[in-house]
Design goal:
The protein has 2 domains: 136 residues, Rossmann fold, CATH 3.40.50; 134 residues, Sandwich (Tumour Suppressor Smad4). Helix content is 20%, strand content 35%. The strands form 4 sheets. A 6-stranded antiparallel β-sheet has the order 8-7-18-15-10-11. Strands 14-13-12-9-16-17 form a 6-stranded antiparallel β-sheet, with no helix packed on it. A 5-stranded parallel β-sheet has the order 2-1-3-4-5, with helices on both faces. A hairpin with a 5-residue loop joins strand 16 and strand 17. Helix 1 packs parallel to helix 5.
Length: 288
């Protein structure tokens, strides 16, 4: 892919973000690629822009995101029908979603300009809550959907179905439904498996289940997952990609399925998913 127009978005609170915006913009300009800035990013460098993330996506070919994995999640969650390829440059150390560090921004810009970057097609989640038989608005996520007990130190009851068939009623701190992209996030911390980005599955991982035989379950990405709140006494909260949680009530049903579009996430030619996994998780092999 050789983009003609670049959209630039930066995390406004990351140290060094303003300097990196200027440096990356200048590097793209040298190579004849026009750059448009999202409004908060423009304000960081004393510029003016009225473009929101969805508007920027409509008007550009590639979104270059300066920040961390959380910044990419925030951008992806705002795109909806305006899904565009994302190239992440980490302001800090290399993350699972970013494909370059700020120290290597020149190499990253060169790769973009010369069409050397590749893209990994990432499955996204579509989430909808039905209350009293009435479906609510649809939310989109790249990483995961989490139902949890919030701050209370009590287990909650969550009946789970896959394609209409009962799986079990989890008695746990909560449940995580993750995409392969999200399998290296909260699901991994809860004991879930690492899944290759394009493996075509979802994973359902209980959080601290009371029944020790409850383990992660992997289902095909074409599945529809339904989680019903069957706890009458304690509050249950729903969060998509770590956004502000929504309070659910008894009888609410959370429906989770694959979103119709996939997110093209940029990958540098010399960076692989398993290479990042080895680095981030410090897998150095056997000492024997």
């Amino acid at each position: 892919m050789s983009p003609k127009t670049i959209g630039l978005i930066a995390h406004p609170k990351k140290r060094g973000a303003a300097e990196l915006i200027k440096a990356v913009s200048e590097e793209f300009s040298k190579l004849g690629l026009p750059v448009r800035l999202e409004k908060e990013s423009a304000a960081l460098v004393g510029g003016k822009s009225s473009l929101t993330i969805p508007q920027l996506a409509r008007e550009t070919d590639l979104l270059v995101v300066l920040g961390g994995d959380g910044t990419i999640l925030n951008v992806a969650d705002h795109l909806a029908e305006n899904v565009k390829p994302i190239f992440g440059i980490n302001v800090g150390s290399l993350g699972f979603l970013t494909c370059s560090t700020s120290a290597d921004y020149r190499e990253a810009v060169q790769a973009v300009a010369k069409g050397k970057i590749q893209f990994s097609e990432r499955t996204m989640l579509q989430v909808q809550v039905t209350t009293d038989g009435k479906p609510g608005p649809v939310a989109i996520g790249l990483n995961d959907v989490v139902l949890s007990r919030g701050k209370l130190s009590r287990l909650i009851l969550l009946r789970t179905r896959v394609d209409g068939e009962d799986l079990t009623e989890f008695n746990a701190d909560g449940i995580i439904v993750a995409t392969p992209t999200g399998s290296t996030a909260y699901s991994l911390s809860a004991g879930g498996p690492i899944m290759a980005p394009e493996s075509g599955v979802f994973v359902i991982t209980p959080i601290c289940p009371h029944v020790l035989t409850n383990r992660s379950v992997i289902v095909r990405e074409e599945s529809q997952i339904e989680i019903e709140v069957t706890d009458r006494d304690d509050p249950v909260f729903l969060a998509v990609d770590g956004r502000d949680p929504t309070l659910l009530k008894f009888g609410d049903i959370v429906s989770i399925r694959r979103y119709e579009k996939k997110l093209p996430l940029a990958v540098m030619p010399n960076v692989s998913f398993f290479g990042v996994v080895r680095q981030k998780l410090k897998w150095s092999g056997s000492n024997i």
